[in-house]
Amino acid sequence: MKILAIEASGLVAGCALLEDGQIIGDYNIQFKKTHSQTLLPMMEELRKMTDLKMAEIDAIALTKGPGSFTGLRIGAATAKGIGLALEKPLIPVSTLGSMAYNFYGTDALICPMMDARRATVFTGIYEEYDKPVCRKEPCAVPVEEIVRDVLDTAGEDTDPAAGGSGKQRRVIFTGDGADAYRAKIEAVITGSGISCSFAPAHMNRQRAASTAALAYALWQEKGEGCFVSADDFRPEYLKAAQAERERAYAEKTGQMDALAAGTLLKNRD
Fold it and tell me: Which ranges of the chain have pLDDT less than 70?
């Protein structure tokens, strides 16, 4: 099985090549330039360095969302273009699930966070001890809400009266949202009694290699059941784009003329 993985859902642009369960190439960059400038050159370099013949690819893996609207669209367009040209299927994986997979083997709960602005994050709760388990599905919620949820989950898993193991359950926060809202997270954590930490720099962002490895694990579990045709794939945004929110606000408040004139007050949601 040969999988080409594309990562463009957030600040990181990346690509990786996995063959028969082994990562044989992995490129990632997070520095100033946009994905439209970096992604295709990185893929071409990966192709040359691994002597890859594109027709030999069995599937294209990508993070389906949540994430940046622009980044998800660039990733989707790239994956769909390759898939349609080569008649290859896509293997979409959750962006948050891919981030959590960076920590495969840990007994801690993983709480990936992507900054969705206005003290809101794209987030979920995951276990990665012996296989990926999603404890809370991807959502867009205020920072304090998800921190309380993950602390409650850790507490229940620790409490024998609630069916827990009785052992201390740790929590690891990761992602650019965890960095951006660290003070808010720590304010909720204080006094909880739950052991929490923040991921180190080499593990706290999206990685194309993790997307490739997670896609391979899905293929091993589901076979072709994890495939999506390039024509049918659509990103999962979780949150409406700013333009859509402003249009809804203008319609609700009767300010469509102001929206067209560019004088509408910004949506407050």
Answer: 239-252, 258-260, 262, 264-269
